Amino acid sequence: MSDFSIVEAQGIRKVFPNMSAPVLDGVSLTVDSGDIVALMGPSGSGKSTLMNILGCLDGPSDGSYSLGGKDVSTLSSRERAWVRLHYIGFVFQSFHLISDHTVLENVTLPLYYAGVDRHEREARAVELIERVGLGHRLNHRPAQLSGGEKQRVAIARAVSGAPRVLLADEPTGALDTKTGNAVMELLLEIHEARALTLIIVTHDPEVAEFCHRKVFLRDGKIVPRGGRHAANA
Ligand SMILES: Nc1ncnc2c1ncn2[C@@H]1O[C@H](COP(=O)(O)OP(=O)(O)OP(=O)(O)O)[C@@H](O)[C@H]1O
Ligand SMILES: [Mg+2]
């Protein structure tokens, strides 16, 4: 693990139109490069909203956010897309694979957007698909895969662009315990092999045990475990 902060969020607020209370109300979070953080908290506490901001899918209403030392809190949506392509991988509870694409096509897609030529993107994608144990499923479509297999494809896709930060929003939420643990082990192996920073939203204490550090959100604020008051993060 290295000791520089890759994620530095300060006083993040998020207010959605037509909502009186902010969904995130002054969240400050610093994550060191190579760290593994579990983000926990009740349903509706703002975990996915925070992940979307950390992953540059959305911008904060207020506060500052720097990623890899670059201020990304005020970027346009087009600039955020560029940052996502080069810095971020995302894994979702419901996989978000493209249903009419094969496994190989799903994993090569981010490389296509990143402008990698066809030969190289296929070679890189095949290597990753083999890495996640699905070399025999290259031409399958998502509907032909089990939940655990889909998530392994989603993980291969998420890391195909060699991101610095991998954000996983309840990656085991749709899986049984055994499959979920296998997916966690895969995430940890990839973390180790690629020196990634990993932030994982989970409700599952077993999954959180895999992580170096736990951060709790409640009502849009970071709190000490189970507590009601904002803490320094
Ligand atoms: N685009 C949006 N517009 C309006 N409100 C939103 C939007 N996205 C989220 N919210 C609201 O923000 C609050 C937090 O939602 P969020 O999805 O971040 O919670 P969560 O902690 O991820 O919950 P869960 O554990 O159920 O996934 C909820 O009350 C939700 O309704
Ligand atoms: Mg959520």
Largest sheet: 6 strands, mixed
Q: Could you say what the CATH architecture is?
A: 3-Layer(aba) Sandwich
Strand tally: 10
Poorly predicted tracts of residues: 229-233
Write structural notes for this entry.
It is a single chain. The chain is of the alpha/beta class and about 230 residues long. It has a single domain, classed as Rossmann fold (3-Layer(aba) Sandwich). About 35% of the residues lie in helices and about 25% in strands. The protein has seven helices and ten strands. The strands form two sheets. The protein has a six-stranded mixed β-sheet with strand order 6-7-8-3-9-10, sandwiched between helices. The protein has a four-stranded antiparallel β-sheet with strand order 2-1-4-5, with helices on one face. Helix 3 packs across helix 4 and helix 5 packs parallel to helix 6. The radius of gyration is 17 Å and the shape is globular. The site of adenosine-5'-triphosphate has 11 residues, from helix 1.
Task: Give the SSE map.
Blueprint: E1 5-14, E2 24-32, E3 36-40, H1 47-54, E4 62-67, E5 70-71, H2 77-87, E6 88-92, H3 103-113, H4 118-131, H5 147-160, E7 165-169, H6 177-194, E8 197-201, H7 205-209, E9 213-218, E10 221-223
Parallel strand pairs: 3-8, 3-9, 6-7, 7-8
Antiparallel strand pairs: 1-2, 1-4, 4-5, 9-10
Bound molecules: adenosine-5'-triphosphate and magnesium ion.
Keywords for this structure?
single chain, 233 residues, alpha/beta, Rossmann fold, 6-stranded mixed beta sheet, 4-stranded antiparallel beta sheet, 7 helices, 35% helix, globular, disordered C terminus, binds adenosine-5'-triphosphate, binds magnesium ion
